[in-house]
Amino acid sequence: MLRFISFGSGSSGNCYYLSTATDGLIIDIGVGIRTLKKQFREYGISLNSVRHIFVTHDHADHIKSVGSFSHDYHVPVYATRLVHQGIDHNYCVQRKVAEDMKMVMETNKPVQVGEFLVRSFPVPHDASENVGYEIQAEGVTFVIITDMGSVTEDIKEAISRANYLVIEANHDIEMLKNGPYPEYLKKRILSGSGHLSNTDCGHALAENITEGLRHVWLCHLSEENNHPELARKTVETILRSYGIIPGKDFNLEVLRRKTPTGIYELI
């Protein structure tokens, strides 16, 4: 049985854990290494269960502790060539990933890593490169798509294949436009290489999900320009306008920025 935990979701740090009974992986490690160790202990999970690290992109809130974790537990790091280069050049990453721990992935080319079949796909964002991941194990398809400025055909396809989906609902458009951010930052977030709004997330789901979808988690919410209940209600309202009923057709939840979730069993 697959298990899923979010240890952080947002600009303060992102980290997602997926495991089988005998294998485990982490997607992004943008939280502090000491915090992560403490949280794993509290869940009764050994850090040695993590045998693979996957990175979406090279922004600090996704890679802060990647090198340290890889070094301390001798875990290989999978990312595209450009993302690996971005990690090397990011001053926020104090310990870089060792050369022999760098595993280069190509987008849309699945790789078998332990018990997981992993496919990365391009996601538009203003990083050196950014990808989402479609992960298959034990008959389940888990998809994560975060930090995306627009919804592409690759993203639509990934949504349609998901049984379990983590997807960005970063901001409420009006809160962002009327909020304290400088104009250049507002334009960046609203651009096609910025972040996905609650409204766009709702439409992306409504137009692309299938009957195989069982659970959706909204991720990477802005602290200044969003609120968990607002994100959920906005997405739910759009889904209902398409005749899709969260709670009946699938579960819909919001991931907290700094609070770990419980352990979800993906069956």
Automatic annotation (TrEMBL):
Pfam family, one: Lactamase_B_2
Source organism superkingdom: Bacteria
UniProt source species: Prevotella aff. ruminicola Tc2-24
Domain Metallo-beta-lactamase, first and last residues per copy: 12-195
Protein name per its UniProtKB record: Phosphoribosyl 1,2-cyclic phosphodiesterase
Cross-referenced InterPro entries: Metallo-B-lactamas (IPR001279), RibonucZ/Hydroxyglut_hydro (IPR036866), WalJ/YycJ-like (IPR052533)
